[in-house]
Design brief:
The protein is about 15% helix and about 55% strand. With about 170 residues, it is α+β, with helices and mostly antiparallel strands. The longest helix is centred in the N-terminal third of the chain and has 17 residues, at about 1-20.
Length: about 170
Amino acid sequence: MKLRLLALATLAAGTLLAAGPTSEPATGPAAYARLKTLVGEWEADTAMGKAHITYQLIGGGTSLVERESAEKMPEMLTVYYLDGGRLLLTHFCMAGNQPRMQARSFNPETGEVDFRFLDATNLATPDAGHMHNAKIRIADNNHFTSEWEFYENGRRKMTESFQYTRVK
């Protein structure tokens, strides 16, 4: 009997791992509601100069558009949106590709939303450089941190992390 229970537990664990990471059904809508509090203008001091981010709701509040620019960087755009209960983002990158990521977890206490890579358009090969994962931590109404992982050749090449303060 103990052997049968052990076999069933092992099989169940293997099935869950094979299915890949999932998010709780409430993760998407709750995380999106929190991200919508970012609407406005933000700044951060970075190695590339002063970075500016603006957030705007479009489509009747169904999409949150992030426009990012810095003194030594071309402007980039990221759109956050719900697909059923999933929170997705599409990042229009200066690398010339458009990675899509899905929120895999949301911690309402820390305000952290963790996004993981789904796929990308205009990605020459799976080894080509692209943004792969992202985290946003909303500390309060006037501060948030953004962390993006850039992958190349199947591995993380670098992580960019910026601390933003609300301008208005």
